[in-house]
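We include the entry.

. . .
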Amino acid sequence: GLPWRVSAAAKERYFVSACAGADGETLARVVAEDGRVVATLPLPGRGHGAARRPSKREVIVFARRPGHFAVIFDPLSAQPARRIDAPQGHHFYGHGVFSPDGRWLFACENDYDKTRGCIGVYDATAGYRREGELDAYAIGPHEMVLLSDGRTLAVANGGILTHPDYERIKLNLATMKPSLSYVDLETGDIVEQVELAPELHKLSIRHMTLDGFGAVWFGAQYQGEDDARPPLVGRHRRGRAIELFSGPDATLQALDNYVGSVATDASGEIVATSSPRGGLAVFWDAQTGRCLGERALKDGCGLAPLSEHRLLGTSGRGAIVRTGPDAPLESVRTGDPTAPAWDNHLRRV
């Protein structure tokens, strides 16, 4: 077990994120909505995304690509955490989701010796034993969401080939093919797949969320020419082509070809995308795709739903803010030398 610190009151809203401590140690921290740190968990290496297990008070934090570990813990208990590892020849991409009943964990994985993306299947009721895998039907399954039917996974395939022997070097930029795959959890079959136009094959689809109307939204990271400015935000509704949204020219320019996180507000009507490179969060109308504005947040990336039209955001400089399209950005905690450097993703748990 991994030792950690916890002190929390009941009946509050909590959020979890990987972070770096003041001395550079790799951690996961749970915070209340007012910014108080209520739990701190040491990690074996740098973390990335997290997921909450339904019907249980368990949270899992995944290693950043190409890491091999994931750590499961109760955010309101000092019970020892549990570690699982990707199988030989695989590494995690940093994200995963649970089945609606909380039994099955599905994890984005790279089967790097076979140059294929897959989805590891773990039985949470049996100590998170790995029971098999599903095909992702593309290279680089980075993040996925479970649709409202409870059996279809939408998978964001970034299309970038990597191998741990080459650290995070991108090995196939000339031939990459990003896509969205819809996979049936019961059969493992692909039920739909959509790709970007050939001229956008370097637009890596990375992070995603579901809006309140059943559509998949995603953020992309462009791997092409520095002076190009392709649209970075997309929406997909089943049976249709992908729609891409650019927003105002100045906003697109400021994003610097990089969207690091995507989330919806509590109503599902607002989609938020963040760019730590650009230092801003941008808001979109989920129904129309219209850009609703932006808020400056230096090195900001983590986003999670807080309330209607409001989200909690975090930055790599230690700040925690409340933000949204309808009100000025509100500081919950300002960055300082003792504040954790929040990593890319914030998950409401």
Remarks:
- Residues 6-10 have pLDDT under 50 and may be disordered.
